[in-house]
Amino acid sequence: MIKEFLYREHRAVVPSYGFDLRPVLMHCLQARRLRVHRDAAITVLLAIGLSASWKATLIVLATLLAFALAVDYFTGHRMRAVVGVVLLFAAFPVLFAAFAAVSLLSSGIDGDLPGEGGFGGLSSLPEEAPAEGGHMWMGPLLAFLLLAGMVGVVVGHRVRLLLALRSLGPEGPSPVPAGFPSATMERIRYVGAAQDGNVTLYSHQNPFIGSGDVRSGRTRAWSVVIGLDRARPAKPGVPPLPVDPVELREAVRKRVTEMRDGLAPGESVALLVDDHIVAEGRCAQGRRPFGPRDPHVFFAGHPLIDEQGWRPFSKAREPAVEALVRNPQADIRCYQRITLEVHGEAVKDARNDPLVPAREEGIQINAFLYLAVQGRTLYAQFVCNALPPIRKAFRVVDVLSGYRGGRFLALALRLVGPEAFGEVVAAPFRLAAAGWEMLFPPREKDGDPWRFFSYDYGARFSLRESAAEPGFSTFLQKLDVNKYTRLIERRVLEGLLDHLQYDRNIDVSAYRGEVAAITSNSLIMNGGTVQGQVAFAPGGSVQQEQAVQGAG
Prior knowledge:
By secondary structure, the protein is an alpha+beta fold. The chain has a domain at 1-106 and 138-186 and 402-439. Helix content is 43%, strand content 17%. The chain is built from 14 helices and 16 strands. It has helices at residues 2-7, 21-52, 54-73, 80-111, 129-136, 138-166, 182-194, 245-257, 318-326, 405-416, 420-439, 463-466, 475-503, 509-518, and strands spanning 199-202, 220-227, 271-280, 282-284, 288-291, 294-299, 305-306, 311-312, 333-344, 347-348, 354-356, 359-374, 377-387, 454-456, 522-526, 541-545. β5 and β6 form a beta hairpin. α2 (21-52) packs antiparallel against α7 (182-194), α2 (21-52) crosses α11 and α3 (54-73) packs across α11. The longest helix is centred in the N-terminal third of the chain and has 32 residues, at 21-52.
């Protein structure tokens, strides 16, 4: 994530609603800083061990590497954690046996040489035998201290991470890390401004990146086509008026925001209506003809790329938005975005006393409306998607406040897990890689964008989308998404047809039946059977979920 948002400075940032990337990035940088401290401490211990006894240190590393490979073999196994604990406690006798075997082997080989002592001075002199036995214990003792020190560093690092996470809980101080270079903070500020924008340059196939996985089956899409030249006037004797898509969008916006404004708290729907401007991430920016109608006019650059720093713009002004809406055949497309956060509202009783506290569900519904008036026809396209809640693993801050003392330390030991073996072995290499990255920060693989006729500025990653659960955790969440999707599309369709009929004097009675079919063309069943006939409009769907009963 750090590379995607901080190092790839020419990459576009996906707009994010209700989610702030800036503190997340700073906490990620702080976590990487703590990891560097951990790797540096382990590397220092290894250096001390090598200088004191290189044989004991190499035996420790070889044992840890063997255990790391054994743990990797059990990855995904139910007994993986048990295997890690067993290997951790088995490390000490294994180290002692290995060191004793190597010492005896080395002593026996060197003892055959006349006039020389073996490892630790083998008994060429009989009176030194007691000293020999005492020296054999020094290697295992050093190995034990070295292993204990490295395990302590790994556990201490995990404790520091858990303390930082606990500070982010509901009752914590929630401090924001500081002390980063000015260039890094400047990039974080740019990312923070870009996430509040209305422009999305996408690198892959999904122009709605950040709104949910379009391949998950949760996406709902439909379109309506209304002929404008053959439509009769709604009021006889009065000619129909031309349709301006900008005015039509404004009518839809007013109709949708009526779900939020001027209502009681129990009836109001928390939503936001904004623009969503999308374009393919690979942008042509070399000098080229402006268009076939102006063959002698040449254009250089790209309207969505700032040539001062060769970074994508994140916010389009209103005149540009209106121009894109009135020119739907442009390479840049403008949608109207409706974002809705699903959460449990606080409830008070008749005496205005608190009854039910609010609850954050973490579900986000995103609807996109595209309007095109061309060829004497109105085309309306509607796409709706939903983001499931944040994964449970990322909500650990909500439960850490309940861990104190011994429970907190036990949690740290459990979270260290068997991966500690690999972390110790890889610490010097990670430390070297971190130092190299600090001296030579990663750059774009393609080099400077301005050197190319076309360059891929598109966003490839949405943090909110990647952190979401693969699906909804309860059936009520699915029902809530279905409810709010129906509410939004009902208001959108009514806003479209009412504007055409009452403001543009166009008879749309023939299309209201089609609209009724669109809003009633899906069914959700949770077990059971349906007898008789069920009718759907084209593109309708049936979703059936059968509960699986236990074998007992």
